[in-house]
Amino acid sequence: MSGTPRGGAAVGRLADLAPVEAGAVMYLRMWSDSAHSRADAASDFNLALGRGLGKSAMSTLEQICSLCAVHGRRPLIRHGLGCSCLGADESCFAQMIGAAADGQNEDAMMMAALIVRPDFAPSLTALSEQFGLALRRMTLPFQHGRVTHSTSPSVLH
């Protein structure tokens, strides 16, 4: 058995994620890191979304992280705040948030069931949609002019 838990195994780079998914991982890391990092996350939300929506986004993040901590199948393994790697658990978390924000509820529910007990997956999916939409609102100014490619959804390369 290797020293790295499977959930922490590097499966990619944070820079390769779309903005919503990358934001999900970064805010998961910030929430988990320290009270100071949580305050920084709350400040980010307030600056980008305004005080009301920012407070709501932070509350949603707190609910997601608490649900994962209390009803998780096991603890989520995270990389450090400054790490450029993307861990397996972080990837699952990011894809769940992204799928929920895109309205792909079945995919989001499947990933939620990998993270928490199945009876809590619907709640985690609903919270993921709220948080993902908040992240999308935060990233919209940065996506103007972005080139998108139209390919078959089942073809990756």
TrEMBL record:
Classification lineage: Bacteria, Pseudomonadati, Pseudomonadota, Alphaproteobacteria, Rhodobacterales
Native source species: Falsiruegeria litorea R37
Entry protein name: Uncharacterized protein
